[in-house]
Amino acid sequence: MATPPDRLAIIVPVLDEAGTLASLKNHLHHWQSRGVEVVVVDGGSSDDGPEQLRHAGFQVVPAPRGRARQMNAGAQATNASRLLFLHADTRLPAGADDQVRAALRPSTGDWGRFDVRIEGHSRMLPVVAWFMNHRSRLTGIATGDQGLFMTRTAFEQVGGFPDQPLMEDVEICKRLKQISAPVCLKHRVTTSGRRWDNRGSWRTIWLMWQLRWAYWRGTPADQLAERYS
């Protein structure tokens, strides 16, 4: 059977997420019910998360550990012409599938991202989200938390996500920008603020700016990943 030309697949990399899967399963079931293909890519979890997801009816693909490798494996596991890469702790807004299809029409764009809202305890999170949304609109560089989406053609043209342990989202955006400017959707995904809550807001903000600056200056992603960990 031929694949519809606007077939959309949501690709979700997971690793040891068993404790937080209830919300993710409900979210992904919603998109399945709307005809969206869902591909979950496990990077070698040590818990029973992958089995939970299989039991819930999702396609679970094994892959080498690493978000970039997992997302590339997910793209290879589907022949959908539209790809949306979703972090396990990020939730899409209502109608996201239709919004992505409209954004990726030949006359509209090749790739894009959503605005983001960060959910957590810190009062700094709305400020962080504001800067993320405006920075990505000014620079054309988005983060994986913003729900990156693209046509398969664009994905393959840039060689997929680069095989690096950090900043894979920044790097693929830099390459995609050579094809076209991103479509910036004002509809907001909601992502978890656990990184900021656990590490401290100011400490995390400062660390991320340091890492981005160092990456822009040419520091290898492997070295940055060690600092991030």
TrEMBL record:
<protein>
    <submittedName>
        <fullName>Transferase 2, rSAM/selenodomain-associated</fullName>
    </submittedName>
</protein>
<dbReference type="InterPro" id="IPR026461">
    <property type="entry name" value="Trfase_2_rSAM/seldom_assoc"/>
</dbReference>
<dbReference type="GO" id="GO:0005886">
    <property type="term" value="C:plasma membrane"/>
</dbReference>
<keyword id="KW-0472">Membrane</keyword>
<dbReference type="GO" id="GO:0016757">
    <property type="term" value="F:glycosyltransferase activity"/>
</dbReference>
<keyword id="KW-1003">Cell membrane</keyword>
<keyword id="KW-0808">Transferase</keyword>
<dbReference type="InterPro" id="IPR001173">
    <property type="entry name" value="Glyco_trans_2-like"/>
</dbReference>
<dbReference type="InterPro" id="IPR029044">
    <property type="entry name" value="Nucleotide-diphossugar_trans"/>
</dbReference>
<keyword id="KW-0328">Glycosyltransferase</keyword>
<dbReference type="Pfam" id="PF00535">
    <property type="entry name" value="Glycos_transf_2"/>
</dbReference>
<feature type="domain" description="Glycosyltransferase 2-like">
    <location>
        <begin position="10"/>
        <end position="95"/>
    </location>
</feature>
